[in-house]
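Illustration: DUF4861 domain-containing protein.
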Amino acid sequence: MKLILLAVASCALTWASCTRELVVEVTNPTGLERIYETVEIPWAKVESALPGVAPQEVVVLTPDGDTLPCQAVTLGEETPQSLIFQISLIGDASEKYQIRKGRPAPPTPQVFGRLVPERMDDFAWENNLIGFRMYGPALQATGEISNGIDIWQKRTRDLVVDKWYKNGDYHTDHGEGLDCYKVGRTLGAGAMAPYLNDTVWLGNNFVESRILDNGPIRITFELTYAPYRVGDRPVTEKRIISLDANTRFNRVTEIYDRSMEAAAGIVLRDGGERMQDGHCIAYWEPAAGNDGNTGIGVVFPEGIAQSVENCGHLLALTSVKANEPFTYYTGAGWSKAGTEDAKAWFEEVKNESARLAAPLVVDIR
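Result:
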């Protein structure tokens, strides 16, 4: 009898350990439909519910029992800092998700980025909707200086950075998209710069890059810039950029070593349409030949101090404090990839602003 009781107890303990889980209830507090939006859970909560679990052993289940792709985010540290996965919710709805220990199938990467030394130290990054790049030290050595954000427009959900660099013909659309955006010595598509005496003080190309996370759902990387002059003294700058799958907007965190006014800006062309409100600015470029129209949007979740047109840019102004991160969002749309016209793009930017103002409510149990 004792042996039977011990066996039953052992089975019960085994069953209990196998069915440990973390229940996460997610609520959409808005009437907007939230499509493939990222949910982020502190890794400490996961580890507390699932002691000893490894990042590759985490399974996220929908209410129907389907497995969702997930990613352990490290932010460049040796151990995970959080767990992310993406969900879709209709307006004013809630759903519960279970996090368990298991053996999920390897997820398909939806984001990617890398330093591209074979192309003058570009740093290029992308998700399944759009791509971007910044310019590095080898290009600056040739005299081409820019710390603006470049756009690679895509109409494929495939990851194309390596493919496009390999064939070298990414200024022509072969059915997947192309690089049709012109940056030059500007802020391009929403980069930030110090703003002093009604002047945008443009920095130089980055000097160092470091990847903090690289998929399958989120890429995060850090760019460091050499000191450059702003007014009568130098400033140093660091950018941390994240891009999740299924969004056209980057999360950009700027860190300067002095307190000052700064501006995120969109370079203006001849023509085009503009939109601005208290939290976002947007621009719809005139058509670039047969390459369609590009829309750019910048969102300040905490609000824009003032929006102005100056120095050839539409600018969103703010104040930054020395060595304190300032975070905002910038992204782009394309008339050949689902954004019909200026009205549609401006609505998309406003919806992004509304989502950021009312994030998904996450209740961890």
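Reading the tokens back as a structure: The chain is about 15% helix and 45% strand.
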